[in-house]
Design a protein that fits this description.
Helix content: 25-40%
Number of domains: 1
Keywords: Signal
Protein name: Carbohydrate esterase family 16 protein
GO molecular function: hydrolase activity, acting on ester bonds
Organism: Piloderma croceum (strain F 1598)
Pfam family, one: Lipase_GDSL
CATH superfamily: SGNH hydrolase
Structural class: alpha/beta
Radius of gyration: 18 Å
Length: about 300
């Protein structure tokens, strides 16, 4: 059994309740890394009722080549029309000045939020979102930890630095929401913990143990931040979804979920789509769980 190591964060700010019908569109503004990316660019075709993720052509440029969780939540596991603006970018870290991404062209979470602020945040005629019909989500962390767990110095204190930067961006989004003068708003924060990816299995036992300890610290502090956020934002209803349970359930019994095992990748029946990302079949499981979480409020 693989050790549960790598932490991801999905924070969804939900504004309003979903209703069906073209005139009652729900807008989803998504931010994150390769677990969420579909290759959306702001100067391309924007989402429409017949093309709810806009550009590129569905399912987009995902890390696994097929559908991912946000694909299926936008088009399958929802009971209302959802138009998704997916700013997520493969390889993203929270802020490139804190953790350098694998390429300088990668858009960090900071960059993605700024893209939103420079485009759809202004409520252009092409994107007439309101605070009663919009969902904001963040799934980030895998690259921050993978690219920094081995750093010298007080690495545990660095987790606080990362989370400070992330929640500063959440506050920016909340400020935009408040400017719209909404009567109510909801925030769903989802912390997910994924397994030691196949790449990390090639590293030493010492490296694996070090990363595991950093991830445990990051997750603990993340849960504390979410709790504090709930306390300090009475106008925001907040949920915590920990996908550790979702990953653990599958990886403890892969065959019962239709997977061959917990280490194979790249073929039909494999849990892993490649050596770093879960397959589309695994993403379908996460999509269903997230949809169930939101079912009574959004979908």
């Amino acid at each position: 059994m693989l050790s549960m190591l790598l932490s991801l964060f999905l924070s969804i700010v939900l504004l309003g309740s979903g209703v069906s019908g073209i005139d009652d569109v729900n807008y989803w503004f998504s931010f994150g890394d390769s677990y969420t990316q579909t290759g959306f660019v702001t100067n391309g075709t924007l989402p429409t009722p017949g093309n709810p993720l806009g550009n590129p052509t569905y399912p987009g440029q995902t890390a696994v080549g097929g559908t991912n969780w946000i694909d299926v939540d936008t088009t399958v596991y929802n009971n209302s029309l959802v138009l998704t603006y997916n700013y997520a970018y493969g390889g993203a870290t929270i802020d490139a000045s804190l953790v350098t991404p694998y390429e300088p062209t990668v858009l960090s979470l900071t960059d993605q939020v700024n893209e939103f602020l420079d485009t759809a945040a202004g409520k252009p005629t092409s994107t007439p979102w309101t605070s009663s019909n919009s969902l904001f989500s963040i799934w980030i962390g895998i690259n921050d930890i993978g690219n920094s767990y081995y750093l010298s110095g007080d690495r545990y204190a660095f987790d606080d630095t990362l989370l400070n930067a992330e929640f500063a961006l959440v506050q920016k989004l909340c400020a935009i929401i408040l400017c719209i003068r909404s009567s109510y708003a909801f925030c769903v924060n989802e912390a997910s913990l994924t397994t030691l990816d196949i790449q990390m299995l090639a590293q030493s036992a010492t490296s694996q143990a070090t990363e595991k300890a950093i991830i445990a610290d990051f997750n603990y502090k993340l849960a504390e931040r979410i709790s504090a956020f709930k306390t300090n934002h009475s106008w925001v209803q907040t949920w915590l979804w920990d996908s550790n349970s979702a990953f653990t359930a599958v990886l403890n019994s892969p065959t019962s979920y239709g997977f061959v095992d917990v280490t194979s990748y790249g073929n039909p029946g494999d849990f892993w789509g490649n050596n770093y990302h879960p397959s589309s079949a695994a993403h379908d499981i996460w999509g269903k769980e997230i949809a169930l979480l939101l079912e009574r409020t959004v979908w």
